[in-house]
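We were asked to recover a plausible sequence for a given structure. The inputs and outputs are reproduced exactly as logged, with field labels preserved.

PROBLEM: sequence recovery
POSITIONS: 185
GIVEN STRUCTURE:
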């Protein structure tokens, strides 16, 4: 027998399942309002306080992810999400870098657009993303002097190497190709 439950907000009778109602873990029972009303309220809340929420989130995120445990948890969450949405990975990485690059200096957004039209800084192929010459993970800044336009291939093989390490690795690769050996990292 299907149990019905009236939403506290829209008053519509819906079957009392997790499809229709969120779950309150503390009280160990279904939330009083339906999911649809919950979504509507959060959409409204967001559109009314958009700027404030964005700012708050940004500041909070920065503080939150200084904690190594929280950072690790986020990494796991991101990894799972990307495993489920592999087509989003590249798009996300690109937008994140461009965002990071343009955050600091309003001139940088303009700079990024110019760089993207140039050939790859490392190999001369066409440019598809931007790269921090000294990686952000190693205290590289978003300053214009630390940003270069690069192709997808160079970007993914450089990862978090600094310029010196990257060039050494590239040279090793060329030398071993030259000798006919396969270079194994
Ligand atoms: Zn409702
Ligand atoms: Zn390249």
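RECOVERED SEQUENCE:
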């Amino acid at each position: 027998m299907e149990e019905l439950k009236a939403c506290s907000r829209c008053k519509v009778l819906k079957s009392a399942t997790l499809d229709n109602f969120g779950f309150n873990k503390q009280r160990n029972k279904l939330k009083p309002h339906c999911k649809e009303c919950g979504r509507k309220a959060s959409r409204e809340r967001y559109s009314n306080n958009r700027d404030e929420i964005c700012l708050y989130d940004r500041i909070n995120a920065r503080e939150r992810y200084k904690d190594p445990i929280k950072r690790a948890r986020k990494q796991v969450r991101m990894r799972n999400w990307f495993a489920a949405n592999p087509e989003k990975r590249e798009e996300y990485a690109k937008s994140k870098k461009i965002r990071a690059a343009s955050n600091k200096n309003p001139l940088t957004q303009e700079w990024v657009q110019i760089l993207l039209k140039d050939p790859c800084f490392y190999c001369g192929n066409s440019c598809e993303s931007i790269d921090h010459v000294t990686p952000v993970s190693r205290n590289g800044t978003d300053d214009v002097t630390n940003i270069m336009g690069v192709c997808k291939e160079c970007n993914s093989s450089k990862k978090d190497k600094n310029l010196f390490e990257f060039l050494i690795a590239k040279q090793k690769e060329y030398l071993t190709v030259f000798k006919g050996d396969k270079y194994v990292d």
